[in-house]
Amino acid sequence: MSLYEKHRLLLEAAIEALHARTFYAAFPENPSPKTYGETADADGKTAFEAALGKPFAGLLQANADTWAGEETSPYTQESLNVSYPIYSTATLIDNAKSSQKSWAKASAETRAGILVESLMRMQSRFFEIAYATMHTTGQGYMMAFQASGPHAADRALEAIAAGYEELKRFPDATLWDKPMGKFNIQLNKTWRAVPKGVSLVVGCSTFPTWNTVPGMYASLMTGNPVIVKPHPKAVLPIAIVIAELQAVLKENGFAPEVCQLAADTQNHLITKELAEHQDIKLIDYTGGSVFGNYLETLHNKTIFTEKAGVNSVILDSVTDLDAVLNNLAFSVCLYSGQMCTAPQNFFVPSTGVKTPNGQVSFEEVAEKFAACLRGVTQNPKAAPFVLGAIQNPATSERIHNVNGLGSAIVLASEKLENPQFPNARTATPVILKVKATDKAVFSKELFGPIALLIETENTAQSVALAKEMALEHGAISCGAYTTDAKTQEFIMDEMAEACTPVSFNLTGGIYLNQHASFSDFHVTGGNPAGNASFTNPEYVIKRFTWVGFRQPVEAAAV
Amino acid sequence: MSLYEKHRLLLEAAIEALHARTFYAAFPENPSPKTYGETADADGKTAFEAALGKPFAGLLQANADTWAGEETSPYTQESLNVSYPIYSTATLIDNAKSSQKSWAKASAETRAGILVESLMRMQSRFFEIAYATMHTTGQGYMMAFQASGPHAADRALEAIAAGYEELKRFPDATLWDKPMGKFNIQLNKTWRAVPKGVSLVVGCSTFPTWNTVPGMYASLMTGNPVIVKPHPKAVLPIAIVIAELQAVLKENGFAPEVCQLAADTQNHLITKELAEHQDIKLIDYTGGSVFGNYLETLHNKTIFTEKAGVNSVILDSVTDLDAVLNNLAFSVCLYSGQMCTAPQNFFVPSTGVKTPNGQVSFEEVAEKFAACLRGVTQNPKAAPFVLGAIQNPATSERIHNVNGLGSAIVLASEKLENPQFPNARTATPVILKVKATDKAVFSKELFGPIALLIETENTAQSVALAKEMALEHGAISCGAYTTDAKTQEFIMDEMAEACTPVSFNLTGGIYLNQHASFSDFHVTGGNPAGNASFTNPEYVIKRFTWVGFRQPVEAAAV
């Protein structure tokens, strides 16, 4: 049985799910022993620990002269001492090009079979990937497992499904039969989906698989060889995924270099060299806006970006203010605000928030929000796992600078004790009060656990500012709370014009930071936060070109 | 019955045709009295003549202060003396924006109904449009009727169908129901396809409706108001289309300014002003590469271009050389080579072309080709209609300059007598012989009836040069003649990499210049000839953004 046949039903279910957009997941998100086996977690931890202090094992790509690695655990501050093969840009491009023709000529079925199979192999290493993710990104265990494992694999499957569907959207061949009155003109026509060329996927330090696999699998599914350039501080999780994929490629007669790991080091970063190389035709990028904006100016390349955004919460009216603020406090705490979907700007009218028990003043909302945050951060059983650690020292720096601003602080950031990892780099969220007129303060992304309570004249101004932030500085998520249907419609109309998805009235165990595969389009592509969207049709269609051939029926060459 | 219901079956048939890609046409291409009525042609001619010398009647858009027009008939050299309303860029943008919200909020069904109805109104004026096209572009009567009438309407319908399908590809609403073990999380989710914004469609002087309506209808279908900026020398045909559309918009409660005609004059061209305006979010452009390349560099806009290309014919082996050369001669003569799909570079090995009767030498192919061309141009019953007139004096100039190159001329260009229009600007095709080493001569588009016979070492070099021309300078069509299946596969592989469609072994009444709606993708978007393709999914998807909204089932606002 071919790999395509082996995975056909899954692929079909995934395509159906893309269009139903109801809940769907191919990879269980619960790291339960019942699902993954009694020893899966311990085995994964052992495998992770066994990998430390060595050259990374398992890649099948061409040998490299040099090996290097620079990862440090945000939990222990110790180097992982894992090294990866280091190549010149020219070698990476040459290797990709030498693998290009056979992958381009492979059928959509062949590619889909290999790619889905690689996700199954990845699944067998979800726990190892989870520990690798914790100790590179600082994510808590649960998020590290879910985001880098099942959620990433689901996003990869989504890209495979979307790509496969688009490749099958037009016939391979047809008879064009035009009646001309006394006779017909008949042409045999065929079409090919021609891959764009070598694809570069640039990863980030906070979500090393989740933000990398969509572009990687979208490019591979549509026939393009891929060079994955991870962040030098977060290589191991994606190296494991690539090693598994290379094994499946090789088993099926393709060069492992169809997908290469291109690690680099801080003293010789190669992203710019790669991106500007004339043979790189596709670029996927997750990271800061300055570099993303530069990439978007490169000519004769197709660019997909996910950059910084300023995410807003609009508080108008609620049925249960405590439930709302508890939900938002958790959103701010989750991975210490280091998610691209984390809320930053909380717009509250100076007249306060409407509740069934009357108006709750701005000051009271601020106090209650601080109390809710303390409720999370002072819960020793949960806090270390929810907040995780701070990936980048620069983020800690930013929080401390904000703390130093003085009088406007509602709640100061503190170090969070982590009993398991006493050296963990941690910081509880800081809440600042800001006037709507102090636009300079809230008009940029303050990456990390920083929440700004912005006092506005009324909800109309809250919406106008949230819209302006999204249009000018980008936004990937938005939360809004209103019990009034007209206000809700108004918010939808306005935020739609800023191409920002809105979660309304979330309370309980669902958070505005969470974007579900097969249902929520992640990043819309419509505002400065990025031009990519996991996974809409545009995300895969732009990776290939339809080319047609035709000839008279009687003239077929022999 | 709504307009959507009225046209629903047609729309469904068009969507089906997009995917079957067999022959399909909604608008009959034969201007026969049986189809269009006994008096249709005469009525159209009368209507055209009645429009001359007056301000153009029928537009419903806001009044303008000034009116102007600069069209001259390539057949009579006389001014049409039709004037059109002239607006400032600011007024055009303001008018578009004031019509924007209601059009964006209209359902896909409402928009599709209105747009298909407008094509029916356009159909009622096909003959008038044909005469307007003849006397602005110089096209012969039959091409003017077909290209500006039924073929353009079919391409418009194709854009409507593709846009409608994409808007319906995801649900408006769904229930997201996630099992969490002991309970489910349920979210009501909705999605909107948010239009990108004001759309600018820039027309060309040779195909004023055919090259304009795809972008115009694609933008309108996806909810964007459109400003149509025609070439100042070819306004009347598209003005008629816009007037009919504005009438349907108004009848259905929408502002006519949803689609505005934005004529300009040579002494104040407004394309650059419009294109650079921050409120223009989408640009469709047909025309020269220099301006097209400039447009493609504009930031924060979605650009669709069709620019110049260098189209090749590869001659390797044939079963009937006369049939082949007659077919190619007609391709060169059709509208005097002023089609973006017209062949220019004919690659022939120095050893000649293989035929069932042996090798026919390069020189003999050149002589036979010249004879075939004379066969078309010296047929007084056909030539004036096939060749039409030269739209632009600069094209005549180019032909004369080429004539003056001297010894390499196989066939010189001559004036073609047109008994009906003695003042017609005409030129029969010139054939030049060029060495494969004289790359400077054939590495650019020589717009007009200019054919270059390029002597190559062998077919491999012919293919390499055709591929290089396409990759470096763009190509929209390619013809290839081979009786060998391996050579054909080789040509397909190579030209696919240059994203150029190839017509193989065409003889008889079908020409490589002809791209059929609902079957042939026109321009692939994959080489420098342009980044647009009539009509693939990308052509419509990039005109809107998917934005999602969600809220807990129990939390619906009231």
Model description:
Chain A is globular. Chain A starts with a helix and ends in a 6-residue tail after the last strand. In chain A, helix 12 links the parallel strand 8 and strand 9. The first copy, chain A, has 2 domains: 322 residues, Aldehyde Dehydrogenase, Chain A, domain 1; 193 residues, Aldehyde Dehydrogenase, Chain A, domain 2 (3-Layer(aba) Sandwich). By secondary structure, chain A is an alpha/beta fold. In chain A, the strands form 5 sheets. Chain A has a 7-stranded mixed β-sheet, sandwiched between helices. A 5-stranded parallel β-sheet of chain A has the order 7-6-5-8-9, sandwiched between helices. A 3-stranded antiparallel β-sheet of chain A has the order 3-4-19, with no helix packed on it. In chain A, helix 6 packs antiparallel against helix 10. The first copy, chain A, contains 20 helices and 19 strands. Chains A and B meet through strand 3, strand 4, helix 19, strand 18 and helix 20 of A and strand 3, strand 4, helix 19, strand 18 and helix 20 of B. Strand 18 of chain A pairs parallel with strand 19 of chain B, so a sheet runs across the interface.
